[in-house]
């Protein structure tokens, strides 16, 4: 009886096991085509199995960490202002690199190479591996992607309307990343191709505008032709001479082709200290049009803010000015706590504003985007009231323990 039950359960167990080590898309495609599960093994090497297992470990760990620290008020920044002065990184692991593959896999380990060879327009260059912080392969390292791009652009002029629409849809999905490449396609006399290319360029420009306020590491970056290698001192653009990487991971030595790699970077332990300069103008009211610093703080982070400058409090006279400390001569934004004209802050949209003044150190009691604004008494903000001038603000956010 048990043997018979196990025989019925075996197919389900095989699929369940396969899903833990094979990408779901491969399982789905094989089943849809009527192929046996054993056929999938030919499509995945032993190295790939190890990579996928590694991905599941990294992903599950990251998910657990995220769920522990996430706060409901940590909204995306909008209207980001200011100049990033410095990012003080945590400790860089000089031994290990992380290879980010296009399928989402992340491989951690030590490269067998001692250095990278790059051919630049100024001649060959050798970069020691321990000096490499990041590698971003260029389009010339992705020949299949270039071929697909050429094919899709050619398809925009197809006689079949549905083929044209399909090509347009696929190109649009590539978005900002193909911005530079679209510029190399000139008008060849095909009316449809020209029309769709013009539309795509306009849509990509709109996409860029929508991403403008996002943090730098979140923005999609247009591909360039050359490979980009960033070091602590400079960034090199050229052609990597290594077409394959061997990495010593906890699962053994794995070989990865360059065209499979989306990005290479290093593990940095701990979050970065952020130093930023922001301008708060007289029409940036704390209860309305605040300035988003673009800095996401976590509960427990230490925030140090200093400010200088002045704004003209015109409702009280053309020669009356306020410093970031404000003055009760201009009334109270919050009775007894925040004087009129004072520089204020809040963390997230739903936070209660508090006074910063010319200098303040605070430990964040919540998580969210740090916003700044000026406390103007009720009835004196907006309308015909104007407050010329600005406060120059410097912010240092140190990760909490």
Characterization of this structure:
- This protein has seven helices and 22 strands.
- The chain is an alpha+beta fold and 401 residues long.
- The protein has a ten-stranded antiparallel sheet with strand order 5-4-8-7-6-11-2-3-9-10.
- Helix 4 crosses helix 5 and helix 5 (161-174) packs parallel to helix 7.
- The longest helix has 24 residues, at 46-69.
- The termini are far apart.
- The model is unreliable at 1-79 (pLDDT under 50).
Largest sheet: 10 strands, antiparallel
Radius of gyration: 28 Å
The structure class reads: alpha+beta
Strand content range: 25-35%
Low-confidence stretches are: 1-79
**Widest β-sheet, arrangement of strands:** 5-4-8-7-6-11-2-3-9-10
Number of strands: 22
Provide the succession of SSEs. Answer: HHHEEEEEEHHHHEEEEEEEEEEEEEEEE
- Give the N-to-C terminal Cα separation: 58 Å
Shape: extended
Return the average pLDDT rounded to an integer: 79
Helix percent reads: 25-40%
Summarize the topology.
Layout: H1 2-21, H2 24-32, H3 46-69, E1 83-88, E2 91-101, E3 106-111, E4 115-120, E5 123-128, E6 134-136, H4 143-155, H5 161-174, H6 179-182, H7 191-211, E7 227-230, E8 235-240, E9 244-249, E10 252-257, E11 261-269, E12 273-281, E13 291-297, E14 302-312, E15 321-322, E16 327-334, E17 338-340, E18 342-347, E19 354-355, E20 359-363, E21 368-375, E22 389-398
């Amino acid at each position: 009886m048990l043997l018979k039950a196990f025989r019925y359960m075996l197919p389900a167990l095989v699929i369940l096991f396969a899903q833990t080590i094979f990408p779901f898309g491969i399982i789905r495609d094989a089943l849809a085509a009527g192929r046996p599960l054993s056929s999938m093994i030919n499509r995945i090497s032993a190295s790939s199995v190890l990579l996928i297992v590694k991905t599941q470990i990294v992903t599950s760990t990251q998910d657990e960490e995220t769920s522990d620290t996430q706060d409901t008020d940590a909204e995306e920044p909008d209207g980001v202002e200011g100049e990033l002065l410095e990012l003080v990184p945590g400790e860089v692991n000089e031994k290990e690199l992380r290879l980010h593959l296009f399928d989402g896999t992340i491989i951690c380990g030590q490269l067998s190479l001692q250095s990278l060879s790059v051919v630049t327009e100024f001649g060959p260059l050798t970069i020691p591996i321990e000096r490499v912080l990041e590698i971003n392969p260029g389009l010339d390292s992705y020949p299949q992607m270039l071929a697909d791009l050429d094919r899709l652009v050619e398809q925009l002029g197809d006689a079949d309307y549905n083929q044209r629409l399909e090509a347009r849809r696929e190109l649009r999905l590539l978005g900002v990343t193909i911005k530079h490449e679209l510029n190399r396609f000139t008008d060849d006399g095909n009316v449809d191709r020209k029309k769709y290319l013009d539309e795509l360029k306009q849509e990509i420009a709109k996409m860029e505008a929508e991403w403008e306020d996002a943090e730098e590491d979140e923005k999609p970056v247009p591909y360039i032709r050359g490979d980009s290698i960033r070091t602590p001192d400079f960034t090199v653009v050229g052609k990597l001479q290594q077409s394959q990487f061997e990495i010593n991971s906890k699962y053994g030595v794995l070989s990865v082709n360059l065209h499979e790699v989306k990005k290479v970077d290093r593990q940095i332990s701990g979050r970065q200290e952020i130093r930023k300069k922001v301008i708060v103008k007289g029409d940036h009211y704390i209860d309305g049009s605040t300035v988003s610093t673009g800095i996401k703080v976590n509960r427990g982070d230490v925030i140090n803010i200093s400010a200088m400058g002045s704004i003209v409090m015109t409702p009280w006279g053309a020669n009356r000015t306020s410093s970031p400390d404000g003055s009760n001569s201009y009334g109270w934004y919050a009775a007894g706590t925040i004087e009129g004209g004072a520089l204020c802050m809040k963390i997230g949209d739903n936070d209660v504003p508090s006074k910063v003044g010319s200098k303040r150190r605070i430990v964040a009691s919540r998580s969210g985007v740090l916003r700044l604004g000026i406390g103007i008494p009720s009835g004196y903000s907006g309308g015909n009231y104007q407050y010329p001038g600005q406060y120059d603000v410097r912010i240092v956010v140190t990760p909490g323990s």
